[in-house]
Known about the structure:
The complex is a heterodimer of chains A (208) and B (301).
Chain A: H1 3-11, H2 22-47, H3 55-75, H4 99-119, H5 126-149, H6 153-170, H7 176-207
Chain B: H1 4-17, H2 25-42, H3 47-59, H4 64-75, H5 80-92, H6 95-108, H7 111-123, H8 126-139, H9 142-151, H10 155-167, H11 171-181, H12 185-193, H13 197-204, H14 210-223, H15 228-238, H16 242-254, H17 258-267, H18 271-283, H19 287-298
Helix pairs in contact in B: 1-2, 1-3, 2-4, 3-4, 4-6, 5-6, 6-8, 7-8, 8-10, 9-10, 9-11, 10-12, 12-14, 13-14, 14-15, 14-16, 15-16, 17-18, 18-19
Amino acid sequence: MNDDNMKEFAALELDKVIAASADMQQRWHDSIDAAAEREAATQYSTHRGFSPMSFFWGAAITAALAIGIGVAVFLADRPRSTETVDYVVQELPGSGLDRQATFSRALQVHLYDTQQSIATIPGNSAEERALLALQIVQQNRLFVQAAERHDADNLARVLRAFEPILLRLAADDIAPADADALRAQLAFEMKIMLTKLGRDSSNESHST
Amino acid sequence: MHTRWNLICIAVSTLTFGVAGAQDNAARSEKEELQMMALEALMASPSERALPALLKLLDGDGSDELKESALFVLGQIEHPEAGKALLGYARDGQGETQLEAIRMLGINGSPETLGALPGIYANGNREVREAVLEAFLIADDTEGVFGIAMNATTADDYEDAVEILGAMGAHAELAKLREAKGISDALIEAYIISDNSTELHKLAMDSSNPGLQAEAIEAIGIVGGDGADAMLAEIYTKSADADIKEAALQGLLIGDYDEVVLRLYRASQDTAEKRELLQTLVIMDSPLAMEVIDAALAGDQ
């Protein structure tokens, strides 16, 4: 071994631990947490399963195609700021779906799906709750973009209104009772929106 | 089997007259559960039928949760009186009911309701002011938040508004604020939140305020993006200021740019600097740290 190099290496005094400042450490922790959440969210979204026994999912599979088509159409000209891994669906040739109706159906499935997800959020695991809530935020943002693109500003505002609640639900310092209240609030508001969308669709089909 | 109209009538009567015999706590809870179901059913009813029932419930002695739910339904009713009622609760309501009514104004998003928000903000406590900012966020009204930031009378109010502008990605309003109020910690945080690397790069080169310059340099590491690593390396190598160099190194650490740190390590002729750079690689838990150590032990460097 080269003596000069050994001296240079020894001069680095690697045995001396240089303590990082508290705020620096906090930033590392935040970065690590954020990275872990992103990683886990990616894994969750790619491994997300469903029960083939559920009647709803029979319809949902069909509707999921509509989501894919709808969201792909609505977002086609926009720069993508979020992952769209769940929505990468090829457009069916010659489908000729009405954009308004397609978006409405896609949104209904999103709301129904989100309702189901919220119901499955574990009450005793802050980590899992945060993970799922953040994943819903991500998907919700996609639909905000889609609503904006479709000039459905009223729906975009409602979807945006869900986000602060979801982010509160993702907070790690929230009491279980408060988390339950937020889940109940979201579930109720989504149910109301589903009723409204269903009513509007029904009115439109009767008027045509 | 009930028809839709039957269900609506039941919903209205449940909300208007309550459920007989619901006296004790358990029964009260059951009563509220029924009222919640009735609220859902009201959404399917004509607005002129639903409106009085909702207003009756909101003026009654139900729980906050029930009233918040009623406000959401009220917010979805397309009737001029519904908007007026929401405004009333947002201005004069109490506690959670007021906060929820303010949220509904954001969801409503009409010029009339949004136009009322600055006045509610000016007369409200901190919770009310936060709710107003959130309502502007929901309505995607960057001008409204900008107005609040411009007229903020306390540092906290200014910072809250700037943070919301960052969350809204309101680059134009943030630029106007910088021009009007100057650069600040809050603006740098807003640039981070809105991923505005362009402004951060400009600030990183502006030495007029070394403290904020250092913050902007670190922030480049947080935001990342194209050219962030090269810029941090350039700042690190060219700056003679120890604090700026330190900020650039922290930016590299936060951004996890271990290859850049390795290059700096290899280029350095200064033992103390080499030690700090190698320590940084170790802290980053980079495999390149072991590469350096192995190479040094093998006499390659």
